[in-house]
Each structure stands twice: as structure tokens, then as C-alpha cells.
Specification:
- The protein is about 50% helix and about 5% strand.
- By secondary structure, the chain is mainly alpha-helical.
- It has two domains: about 110 residues, no CATH class; about 90 residues.
- The strands form two sheets. The chain has a two-stranded antiparallel ribbon with strand order 1-2.
- α1 packs antiparallel against α2.
- The protein starts with 11 loop residues before the first helix and ends with a helix.
């Protein structure tokens, strides 16, 4: 997505839409869902308490800080453009506001670039994170500081490999090291290749139905 210039001129609605797009690009579609960050009642109507996990809570803090900085910059830009003020700003007032804006904009830029997640993900990567978080809510995966881990009582390694394989483009090599680290596993690539040789010849593991159902949500 396009980078915001320091002197952006937006309504709050336009800025809110930009922020939502930024969150989706950096953290995936599920970042727009409050259930990602808060525990919910069984009927889904009420939020109570925060979800555990250092990386998840850091993510939430980064988002809130980013929003705070952008709103502060917008307020300064509005004043510099003469919006919502009854008198023209004096020279020194403009200088002070411009210096404050530069400081805030630098802080926001550093926040956005503070981790590899800030880089624009490949399309399938963003989609993968979206469905990983659905799997967390369904109990198949658990969130960890470095990514996810499967609930061994609900998802086999073969099912996890099949799940990950669904996000590969045609002729794309399975990123063995990346996914092993991300899910705390080993030899996920071998588990996926073995599915192609199963007796049914369909490349699907036992219990593949739960994965297929998850991926249509």
C-alpha cells in the first residue's frame, strides 16, 4: 500500500480506512477482528480479558501506538491548513508544529519498519496468517512467541502439512525451514510429500475434512 506523506490531508473516515488497510497488510485480515485480542463469551457477544501471548499483545500495542501517532499528525496537519481554528497561526507556532510533526512522523515510520512483519507480505502469506488465527480460535493451533504450534490432540502433523500446502502457488517450493520454525515442527516438507504417495493417491491425510472446512470460513 502507498506510504502516507507527512502532510497527508484526510478526513477521519479516510484515515480510518487507511489504518485498517495497514493493519491487514501487516498482520492479516484477522487483525480487524476484536476476538483476535480478547477472550469472548461462548455466544460471541461479549469481550472480556485479553488473550495471552507476548507477540500478540505486542502487536496490539504497536497498532494502538500507530493509530495514536497518525491521529496526532492529522491534528497538526489540520491546524497547519487552517482547519478548525479561528485565527491564523503565527510564524513561531507553525515552526513548533512542524517540528513536532516531524518527530511524530519519524516515530511512526520507525514503528512501521520495526520488524520483518512490517514488510508487505506475499498475498498467500497474509491469507495463511488469517486462517492460522481462525485455527487458533477453533483450537487446532495455539499462538506462540515465534508463531504457532499445533494442538496435538486435534491436529496431526500430516494435517498441518496439508493445511500449509494449500497455500503454495503452483510449482512453488515448500519453504521447509520457514514453516518448521514458524510451527515448532521438523520435516514438515517430508510429511507433505508423503501425502502424495498415500494409498488413496489423493494427497490428503486422514481427517483432511476439518482442514477443508476451516479454509472455507
Amino acid at each position: 500500500m502507498d506510504k502516507l506523506p507527512i502532510d497527508f490531508d484526510m478526513t477521519m473516515k479516510e484515515l480510518s480506512e487507511w489504518i485498517d488497510n495497514w493493519k491487514v497488510e501487516r498482520y492479516g485480515k484477522d487483525s480487524l477482528n476484536p476476538e483476535r485480542y480478547y477472550n469472548t463469551s461462548e455466544d460471541g457477544r461479549f469481550l472480556y480479558g485479553v488473550r495471552e501471548g507476548e507477540s500478540l499483545n505486542r502487536e496490539k500495542a504497536d497498532i494502538e501506538k500507530g493509530v495514536q501517532l497518525l491521529v496526532q499528525i492529522k491534528n497538526i496537519n489540520d491546524k497547519l491548513c487552517g482547519k478548525g481554528i479561528s485565527q491564523h497561526l503565527q510564524w513561531q507556532e507553525r515552526e513548533n508544529l512542524e517540528r513536532e510533526r516531524e518527530t511524530l512522523y519519524k516515530e511512526f515510520t520507525e514503528l512501521v519498519q520495526s520488524s520483518p512483519d512490517a514488510a508487505a507480505p506475499e498475498p498467500q502469506q497474509g491469507e495463511l496468517l488469517y486462517y492460522c488465527n481462525i485455527a487458533v480460535r477453533m483450537g487446532y493451533l495455539e499462538k506462540t512467541a515465534t508463531g504457532y504450534k499445533r494442538n496435538k490432540g486435534m491436529m496431526s502433523k500430516a494435517q498441518l502439512a496439508y493445511f500449509l500446502g494449500r497455500f503454495l502457488n503452483q510449482d512453488e517450493t515448500f519453504p521447509e525451514s520457514k514453516y518448521n520454525n514458524m510451527f515448532g515442527e521438523n520435516r514438515l516438507g517430508k510429511a507433505l510429500s508423503q501425502l502424495a504417495d498415500n494409498k488413496n493417491g489423493d494427497g490428503k491425510p486422514r481427517g483432511y475434512e476439518i482442514i477443508d472446512e476451516l479454509l472455507i470460513m
